[in-house]
Amino acid sequence: MATQSKTLFEQFLAPIFSHLVDRDALLRLRDSIDWEAGVSQFTNPQVVYPNYYKISNFHGIKNGYLNVDAALTYDPITQYVLPPGETWVRASLVKAIGGEPRRILDLGCGTGTTTFMLKRQFPNAEVIGLDLSPQMLVMANYKAQAAAVDVTFRHGNAMSTGLPAASFDVVCATLLFHETPPAVAKTILSEAFRLLTPGGQMLVLDGNQRTLRAADWLSTIFEEPFIRDYGQGNVDAWLGYAGFERVRTEDVFWLNQLSYGRKPLPVAERIGEPEGDRQSDDLPLPQPA
Ligand SMILES: C[S@@+](CC[C@H](N)C(=O)[O-])C[C@H]1O[C@@H](n2cnc3c(N)ncnc32)[C@H](O)[C@@H]1O
Description:
This protein is α/β, with parallel strands linked by helices. The model is unreliable at 1-5 and 277-289 (pLDDT under 50). It is globular. Strand 4 (168-174), helix 9 and strand 5 form a beta-alpha-beta unit. Helix 5 packs across helix 8, helix 6 (86-95) crosses helix 7 and helix 9 (182-195) packs across helix 13. The chain has a domain at 86-265: Vaccinia Virus protein VP39 (Rossmann fold), CATH 3.40.50. A 7-stranded mixed sheet has the order 3-2-1-4-5-7-6, with helices on both faces. It has helices at 8-20, 23-32, 35-42, 51-55, 68-78, 86-95, 113-121, 134-147, 182-195, 209-214, 216-222, 227-232, 235-242, 267-270, 279-282, and strands at residues 103-107, 126-131, 152-155, 168-174, 196-207, 245-252, 256-262. The structure holds S-adenosylmethionine. S-adenosylmethionine binds next to helix 7 and strand 2.
């Protein structure tokens, strides 16, 4: 009897994507970047890769994000997996930020697509993207230079960034938590809480946990090692556990969700705040296109 040697991802999704992706353009892009120099420029030798990150294959790519192929193919594939449209889904996070933040941190920034949108929306803010993969950061930096966007990329672990406490007005994470064990997601939220100023906003855009529970085939087909555990979890509860208030989650179309939390203000600064929950004034919900 024949044994199944190919994963579902290899059998079904990879052939579809290979038709959608312009392979020659990718090869030209690969050859136009000095990956070796870029990786050594971004690698911080102090960074220790957590086990889940080293041993996992994400999106069916061997060695996860620590390779050039992952960084090259990430954008061409991601545009097809965020219905009804990648920009609309990402914009739901950017538009939900209230006020005029001075410093914004994008955790697990990958190739920087959301990071750039944050900078465009808040041109006066200092925007930093942090990621564990030097290869993804090389790609992000290449895109930043090509588009002349002034953002900073930093190699680091979102669980323990080494950045100063209370130094950001906004911390966000896009499409990060479905790729981490829930315990890691909770640790990242505690680190984000530490990094935020009082009153600072935390935003998490990721897979819709309700949808993932209702449509288990999604977890099977995407072959993310932790997506099923993520789907069984509850980002609201994780935010509350980390200390955030005004927590809530809204659907972003069918496949994604956006979660919010605010780091509490000191008691003295709460005086004068209206009674009750004003979160809907502070954080406008994304509306379908
Ligand atoms: C699915 S990608 C999302 C990238 C980007 N945020 C986006 O929206 O396209 C997940 C990213 O998280 C990064 N990552 C995973 N665990 C991390 C951690 N503990 N600290 C920092 N980055 C991490 C991966 O290297 C990868 O670039």
